[in-house]
Specification:
- The complex is a heterodimer of chains A (about 375) and B (about 575).
- Chain A has about 375 residues and is α+β, with helices and mostly antiparallel strands.
- Chain A has helices at about 5-15, 25-60, 75-105, 190-200, 210, 245-255, 265-275, 315-320, 345-355, 360-365; strands at about 110-120, 120-125, 130-135, 135-140, 145-150, 155-160, 165-170, 175-180, 220-225, 235-245, 300-305, 310.
- In chain A, helix 2 (about 25-60) runs antiparallel to helix 3 and helix 7 (about 265-275) packs across helix 9 (about 345-355).
- Chain A is elongated and about 90 Å long.
- The relative contact order of chain A is 0.10.
- With about 575 residues, chain B is mainly alpha-helical.
- Helix content of chain B is about 60%, strand content about 5%.
- Chain B has 16 helices and 5 strands.
- Chain B has a 3-stranded antiparallel sheet with strand order 1-5-4, with no helix packed on it. In chain B, strands 2-3 form a two-stranded antiparallel ribbon.
- The longest helix of chain B has about 40 residues, at about 80-120.
- The chains are: A alpha+beta (about 375), B mainly alpha (about 575).
- Chains A and B meet through helix 2, helix 3, strand 7 and strand 9 of A and helix 3, helix 8, helix 9, helix 10 and helix 11 of B.
- Chain B: It comes from Rubripirellula reticaptiva.
- Chain B: Its EC number is 1.9.3.1.
- Chain B: Keywords: Electron transport, Heme, Iron, Membrane, Metal-binding, Oxidoreductase, Respiratory chain, Transmembrane, Transmembrane helix, Transport.
- Chain B: Pfam families: COX1.
Chain lengths: ~375, ~575
């Protein structure tokens, strides 16, 4: 076996213990370099200090009652030295950190702008012309500026592979930018087909963790919410896909632009259920999550917080999507964000049609 | 002369052992004598029991958190409410640890007991206020427990708005609890400031005070100046929740970042309320168990004050990613680095104190060495977070979790344990098993590192904090951490057992078991009701030249040269030379 193979084997084995996630933006190189430099500086100070600590503890161990060999009370020169020398390193860290920070802060002219909306507990990325999707799709080697807002509480957009993070504070816009440097691979068609089939058979929503690629077959980088935002904070995750060419990115956007001709509304409704954050709170198997399950919902009378009973018909569902806090089902909190202005009439129609397929009442009316 | 013998021609000074009725534990009896006591030592002991219970409770919550995180999908809690349980768990763990344990641990429990004794005073300046502050602590604790048993609390211990103004959990009960605890903290601080300013006996100048008193004094300044800001902020939060006055909630034209400024303006100085007393404890421990004068006394004393003052200027580093202006962010980063210098000075001083000392590796010394190791790691990793660019990546990840646990657990808790082991014989008049004590220190040290070192890696690899479930790729490191936490729990249990068994089976403690030169070692163990039988002679607190080991009686004693107060024969009325003249 060649030596290089041996090393790559070590690399594979050590990967789960590596210091950093994959480096995939222009910031990550600077950031990792700075992190390592600080760490090495710390080690250079730490090791001698600890050697002295343990060496002294052993070397000057004396029987009870023995007197100390020396009783020096101070040494001004020594004390000033060890106060001033570390200060130079601190100034270095501060200056380099601040410069790199300013680079991360100021987006270059002409960066592509993408609007991001964060809500409890999901993401909606606005690709313009009515295309919304929870995944963040970017173009390789092109700077992109995110213009971010939150509809409820503070969230924080964090992409470890890009070493980039920014809080999203409700009531104001926050911005961040980065330039991705690593494109996402595409998996083979067979692999994608197998995974799609499996997901369909199980009747679940797409599992990014199990497959490690998106429903469109792209490998991805993780995107987390880093600011604690309530119940499903840890599930407020999505993925970042970096496309190699503009054509590829546009083709992907086109795929989600609207209900393609020939696709029936219920099928498209299922896509919207997965893409627009419904899946985070409304289960399909009857289990109670943050919101009521969609299983058998359509046509069922539901008791409201106010005590009245309302049948979950087309109009109620439509109203709940646009004005979710108006009529809340008993036992749930009014936490759903409004989708007003984000879903077209056809989208809402598709979702209603999809809900009908999940209910015996709905299926009967068909 | 072999080590440990008493030189000829010197007199031994030792207060001996207290008789049954003359120590503070036995001079009056019954539950009421404790409930209404004005004795600072009894109040200190009640605090010790209280904060230990709070610690045990919050520690068990921590173990549940770690066990839940043993598996990526969560091991303990399942089903629809799993995330809610987890969120309540980490909130309560944080809030109880910070407000009920770490902040009052050293100042209120050890400080109440020790400040007057070290000072050579009979009690604190305001004994009734002191008792009041203990009962405020109890009331605050009740509110926290009440919040738990009503609808829980899931905001995180920081109560960030607008989440805290919109969640339906018991935010008001918990913030009222924190508000009341704030008063307890202010009263304790006020009491210490007045005590140290006005009740020092003749001879106790500022620079003859033990460093623990310097640390307590600086802490008290922060407590008195910063805590009111927290009180006001929490009242505003309650007003926001109930009346929607529109300070923090954007729905009513408020700004959530304002809350963060207010909150951290208290809570960052509060970090120094937690760690400064620990510095004081360690300074005394290192010096006494090295039997050597503390190196650079004035530098250590001044650096405590410097930390207390600079601590007020750095709160903004909690908000580097919140979207403050670049100028503000950079200024806060620069100020943050300045705090690290006085902290580093102390570490160097402690190690220089050990150089050419006469070191006894007793249990308190083992904890002090562990403290220096762990606190140095905690301090150095703070540099990664103070540096702006790296903080963008590390903020709100497990790196931060590891960093502040190294400072607060590796720092404050270890110093607290070291302090308890150091002063335990003085407080209760019993010696504990040295083997058991050192064993607990070793297990705690290993368990602690196993728990929190992997978390630095988790954080730099991008694992966000406060996650109930996580990506499977992080599982290895989480599992290491959980095993470490269990070990840490075992170590703490050993420490508790060692201390409690000493109360029953321990040997009677001499007045000065370690060879300390500060005043608390000049009274009996446990001290009499008024601390000293006779007014103590104030000397240099770090002068060990007169402290000798009395091997026959297994104790340290103070010696002084034998002086002839009066000649044994009364001389003639007329001096000899006068006689010769006649």
């Amino acid at each position: 076996m060649k030596l290089t193979n041996a090393f790559s084997l070590v690399g594979d084995y050590a990967e789960p213990y590596a210091w950093f996630p994959e480096s995939a933006s222009t910031f990550s190189e600077t950031n990792d370099w700075l992190y390592n430099w600080i760490t090495y500086t710390c080690v250079v100070f730490f090791v001698p200090i600890m050697c002295a600590l343990f060496y002294f503890a052993v070397k000057y161990r004396k029987p009870k009652g023995a007197k100390a060999e020396s009783n020096v009370s101070h040494n001004t020169v020594l004390e000033l030295t060890w106060s001033i020398v570390p200060s130079f390193f601190l100034v270095g860290m501060f200056v380099m950190g601040a410069r790199a920070y300013l680079d991360m802060r100021d987006a270059p002219e002409g960066a592509n702008e993408v609007n991001v909306q964060a809500f409890k507990w999901g993401w909606t990325i606005d690709y313009g012309s009515g295309v919304f999707h929870p995944e963040l799709h970017l173009l390789l080697d092109e700077p992109v500026k995110l213009s971010m807002r939150s509809t409820d509480v503070i969230h924080s957009l964090y992409i470890p592979a890009f070493r980039a993070k920014k809080d999203i504070v409700p009531g104001r816009y926050n911005f961040m930018w980065f330039k991705p440097t690593v494109a996402s691979e595409k998996v083979s068609d067979e692999e994608l087909a197998a995974a799609t089939k499996q997901t369909k058979e199980r009747g679940e929503s797409w599992s990014y963790d199990d497959h490690q690629f998106t429903p469109d077959g792209y490998r991805f980088f993780d995107l987390y919410c880093a600011e604690y935002c309530g119940t499903n904070h840890s599930e407020m995750q999505t993925v970042v896909v970096v496309h190699e060419t503009l054509e590829d990115l546009n083709a992907w956007i086109k795929k989600y632009s609207a209900r393609p001709t020939g696709v029936d509304p219920a099928t498209y409704g299922a896509t919207l259920y997965n893409n627009r954050g419904c899946a985070g709170c409304h289960s399909l198997d009857g289990s109670k999550r943050v919101g009521p399950s969609f299983q058998g919902l359509y046509g069922r009378p539901e008791e409201m917080v106010t005590g009245e009973s309302i049948k979950a018909d087309e109009n109620y569902i439509r109203e709940s999507i646009l004005y979710p806090k108006e009529k809340v089902v008993a036992g749930y909190q009014p936490v759903m964000p409004s989708y007003k202005g984000q879903l077209s009439d056809d989208d809402i129609y598709s979702i209603v049609e999809y809900l009908k397929t999940l209910s015996t009442t709905g299926a009967a009316t068909k | 002369m072999s080590a440990g013998s008493i030189p000829k021609g010197s007199v031994v000074r030792d207060p001996g052992y207290p008789t049954a009725s003359e120590n503070y534990l036995t001079n009056s009896k019954g539950v009421l004598s404790w409930i209404f006591t004005l004795d600072h030592k009894r109040i200190g002991v009640m605090y010790l029991v209280g904060v230990t219970c709070a610690f045990a409770f919050a520690g068990l919550l921590a173990l549940l958190i770690r066990l839940h995180l043993f598996q990526p999908d969560g091991m303990i809690f399942k089903g629809a409410e799993a995330n809610n349980y987890y969120n309540q768990l980490f909130t309560l763990h944080g809030a109880v640890m910070v407000f009920l344990f770490i902040i009052p641990s050293i100042p209120a429990a050890l400080g109440n007991f020790l400040v007057p004794v070290m000072l050579g005073a009979k009690d604190v300046a305001f004994p009734r206020l002191n008792l009041c502050s203990f009962y405020l602590w109890c009331a605050g604790a009740m509110f926290f427990i009440g919040a738990l048993f009503s609808t829980g609390l899931d905001t995180g211990w920081t109560f960030y708005t607008p989440y805290s103004t919109t969640t339906d959990t018991s935010v008001i009960a918990a913030t009222m609890g924190a508000f009341i605890l704030g008063f307890s903290s202010i009263f304790t601080g006020l009491n210490f400031i007045v005590t140290i300013n006005t009740m020092r006996p003749p001879g106790m100048t500022w620079f003859r005070m033990p460093l623990f008193l310097w640390a307590t004094y600086s802490t008290s300044i922060i407590q008195v100046l910063a805590t009111p800001v927290l009180g006001i902020t929490l009242l505003l939060l309650i007003a926001e929740r109930t009346m929607h006055i529109g300070i923090f909630d954007p729905e009513f034209n408020g700004d959530p970042v304002t809350y963060q400024h207010f909150f951290w303006f208290y809570s960052h100085p509060a970090v120094y309320i937690m760690i400064l007393p620990a510095f004081g404890v360690i300074s005394d421990l290192i010096s006494v168990h090295s039997h050597k004068r503390i190196f650079g006394y004035r530098f250590i004393a001044y650096s405590s004050i410097a930390i207390a003052l600079l601590g007020f200027l750095v709160w903004g580093h909690h908000m580097f990613t919140a979207g403050m202006s670049p100028m503000t962010t950079i200024i806060f980063s620069a100020l943050t680095f300045t705090v690290s210098v006085p902290s580093a000075i102390k570490v160097f001083n402690w190690i220089a104190t050990m150089y050419k000392g006469s070191i006894s590796l007793t249990t308190p010394m083992c904890f002090a060495i562990a403290f220096i190791f762990l606190f140095t790691i905690g301090g150095l990793t703070g540099l990664h977070l103070g540096t702006l660019a790296t903080d963008m990546h590390l903020h709100d990840t497990y790196f931060v979790v590891a960093h502040f646990h190294y400072v607060m657990v590796g720092g404050t808790l270890i110093a607290f344990l070291g302090g308890v082991f150091h002063w335990w014989p003085k407080m209760f008049g019993k010696l504990y098993s040295e083997f058991g004590g050192r064993l607990s220190a070793a297990i705690i040290f290993v368990g602690f590192n196993l728990t929190f070192l992997p978390q630095f890696v988790l954080g730099s690899r991008g694992m966000p904090r406060r996650y109930a479930t996580y990506d499977p790729e992080f599982a290895y490191l989480h599992q290491m951490s959980t095993i470490g936490a269990l070990l840490l729990g075992v170590g703490l249990l050993v420490a508790l057992v060692v201390l409690l068994t000493s109360l029953v089976k321990g040997k009677k403690a001499p007045a000065n078991p370690w060879g300390g030169a500060t005043l608390e070692w000049h009274c009996t163990s446990p001290p009499p009701f008024y601390n000293f039988e006779h007014a103590p002679v104030v000397g240099d607190p770090y002068d060990f030249s007169n402290v000798e080991w009395d091997g026959a009686n297994e104790r340290y004693v103070s010696t002084e040269p034998e002086r002839k107060i009066a000649p044994s024969e009364i001389p003639d009325a007329v001096p000899a030379h006068a006689k010769d003249g006649h």
